[in-house]
Specification:
Rossmann fold; 26 helices; Arc Repressor Mutant, subunit A; 21 strands
């Protein structure tokens, strides 16, 4: 069996040996034991169930929280020649039925599914007909209300134990405290599980917190000279644009990424970053999960994250190739107050959730007792403006409604285009004679959509582009020309959210079911932020040790690489040693205070104090370029 496992590992994934606890986990699964696998980001969690599934008879069911992550993993398996199916959103009943048939009869090895999709009776019935080999619950911390990304729908994953009672279950996560780990075991009903916990220590990453007033300048200095990829995390879509623009103006190869981009834009930006055409990705936390890039040399958090779990998962995307990498938080005193204001004051309490729910029903004109199963596109900014709602609080409220299965929230940028011809057909025929270069596009639109001469009709430019084999941009240009030539009424609206209501409207009654849970989770989020701020404000404990202690692991020896260990924290007091370092640098050439700060990786106040004393001692002077120089003879 060992030879068979190694052969599968090499054939499909190109590795010759297992690492960490992978082999022990696989062995436990082959013995049909339940497993809780706690492994750091980049620790190879997926292989723990993918490899044994390949040598077992039947299909492996994988539950995952994100559609993008599901699609990413299924695409990756298909590229390796492995038969895999994703049950994503927007599937018709007939298509869903056909896909489930393939799982029962088509010799597929993997079925990826969301926890919400798992609740469908049709899906449950067909799972019972499948020859299931094992069950994998990915991102299993989502099942715990104490986890940083709790999703109540995950609690219902335990139904799989009833549907296929004899098959082993493996729960996997990269960020779980001991409390969360116990929650996972209990909620999934794991029976005497084998618990594999690889060290969360990332020895190749130097964790640092840099306190600077001029963060923009410091960000530029941190990114300059890095040849491989970098990620800069910010909290808002607007900030991704601002920071990427700043970096671009300073000649860095950069793009931005957030949840409001179209699928095409996301795919293109990711591709350019992965293949090295773009070096720096400025992104919200919508970027990263399931993205495997081994060549990330630095991850910079330009703003303070909301929890240690989120920070460690995002920072852990650096250095997956095992080479030295940096994880840096750039901050200042104002950041801490901003974090408290944004994270705590923007929490959606019960009263706000009830208000938001009523506004949504009003906006979409959903009658009392109706709405279940209906889907709507939402222009988020327009909605918030219409009802005078705080955007961050509203988004958090939508997530709460999503987590509690009131609605399904999908961040899916799309354009809604409607078209109506306002001329007679004879006029159109004459127009086509005069514009033969665009005639095929117009003819395809007319043949595809009925009623265009009678009422406004929603059209799909992508479909027309596919039918005519003409670029979608060209389709848009033709539609604009038709409008300009007064042939059509043409409207185009942008939507960046898609909502599917999962329960009939009952106003406050709908929310009262989980009102206590909302308050409990808000308290947890407040505690998570406090711990994150403690990490940022920490001046004495090794950064790696602080993080590992949070996850219940104790570091035997300090990392020796973080700002605390190398003496570059806020506690720098040996001013005489710093003066010697500054003076040694100035012996060779003149440097500005900013250049000294970056070179020595010290606080700006520390460097400025050292320079002031050197000036007073007449050991240095300032030249005409506003650079500091060492006086001759010193």
């Amino acid at each position: 069996m060992q030879e068979e496992l190694t052969a599968i590992l090499k054939k499909y994934w190109g590795f010759t040996t297992f690492r960490g606890s992978q082999e022990k986990v696989i062995s436990a699964l082959l013995k049909e034991k339940d497993v809780l696998a706690l492994m750091p980001t980049g620790g190879g969690k997926s292989l723990c169930f993918q490899v044994p599934a390949m040598c077992m008879d039947g299909i492996c069911i994988v539950v995952s929280p994100l559609v993008a992550l599901i699609q990413n993993q299924v695409d990756s398996l298909k590229e390796k020649g492995i038969k895999a199916i994703a049950l994503a959103g927007g599937i018709s009943f007939d298509a869903l039925n056909d896909l489930l048939d393939n799982c029962v009869y088509g010799n597929y090895k993997f079925l990826y599914i969301s926890p919400e999709r798992l609740q469908q009776s049709l899906v449950q019935e067909r799972i019972q007909q499948m020859n299931v080999s094992l069950i994998a619950i990915d991102e299993a911390h989502c099942i715990s209300q104490w986890g940083h990304d709790f999703r109540p729908a995950y609690l219902k994953c335990a139904i799989l134990r009833k549907l296929v009672p004899e098959k082993p279950i493996i729960a996997l996560t990269a960020t779980a405290t001991n409390k969360v780990g116990q929650d996972i075991i209990q909620n999934l009903k794991l029976e005497n599980p084998f618990i594999a916990k690889d060290s969360f220590e990332r020895k190749n990453i130097s964790f640092k917190v840099k306190v600077y007033e001029d963060k923009q300048y410091q960000l530029l200095q941190q990114l300059k000279g890095i040849k491989d990829n970098s990620i800069v995390y910010v909290r808002t879509r607007r900030m991704t644009l601002q920071i990427s623009d700043l970096l671009a103006r300073n000649n860095l190869s950069v793009t931005f990424f957030h949840g409001g981009l179209s699928k095409t834009e996301k795919k293109q930006k990711l591709s350019n970053w992965l293949n090295g055409k773009i070096k720096v990705m400025v992104a919200t936390n919508a970027f990263g999960m399931g993205i495997d890039n081994p060549h990330v040399r630095s991850v910079v958090h330009y703003q303070i994250p909301d929890s240690i779990e989120n920070y460690f998962q995002e920072a852990g995307r650096a250095g997956r190739d095992g080479k030295p990498a940096k994880a840096i938080i750039l901050t200042n005193a104002e950041d801490k107050q901003l974090a408290k204001r944004q994270f705590i004051q923007s929490l959606a309490d019960v009263a706000f959730i009830k208000l938001l729910y009523k506004r949504l029903n009003s906006h979409f004109q959903i009658a009392y007792g109706e709405g279940s199963g209906e889907s709507f596109s939402l222009n988020f900014n327009s909605f918030c403006s219409k009802y005078d709602l705080n955007q961050l609080r509203t988004y958090n409220g939508l997530r709460v409604l999503d987590q509690n299965s009131v609605l399904s929230l999908s961040e899916n940028f799309q354009q809604k285009i409607t078209l109506q011809f306002i001329i007679k057909k004879e006029v159109l025929f004459n127009y086509l004679e005069r514009n033969k270069d665009i005639a095929p596009i117009i003819q395809s639109i007319v043949r595809t959509y009925g009623g265009l001469f009678d009422f406004e009709t929603k059209i799909n430019p992508f479909l027309i582009a596919k039918k005519t084999n003409i670029a979608e941009d060209k389709i848009a240009q033709v539609l604009q020309k038709l409008e300009k030539d007064n042939l059509v009424n043409y409207t185009r609206t942008k939507n960046d959210l898609e909502l599917t209501f999962l329960a009939p409207r009952e106003d406050d009654k709908t929310i009262n079911v989980f009102a206590k849970t909302i308050q409990s989770l808000n308290n947890t989020k407040i505690e998570n932020l406090k711990k994150m701020l403690s990490y940022v404000e920490n001046k004495t404990e090794c950064r790696s040790a602080f993080i590992l202690n949070y996850f219940g692991e104790h570091l035997k020896k300090s990392c020796g690489k973080c700002d605390i260990c190398i003496g570059n924290s806020d506690t720098d007091t040996d001013i005489s040693a710093i003066k010697k370092q500054v003076l040694a640098l100035l012996q060779h050439k003149g440097l500005t205070s900013r250049e000294l700060i970056v070179t020595l990786e010290l606080k700006d106040t520390t460097i400025l104090s050292a320079l002031q004393e050197l000036l007073e001692d007449e050991l240095v002077h300032i030249n005409h370029k506003n650079e500091y120089e060492a006086k001759q003879g010193n």
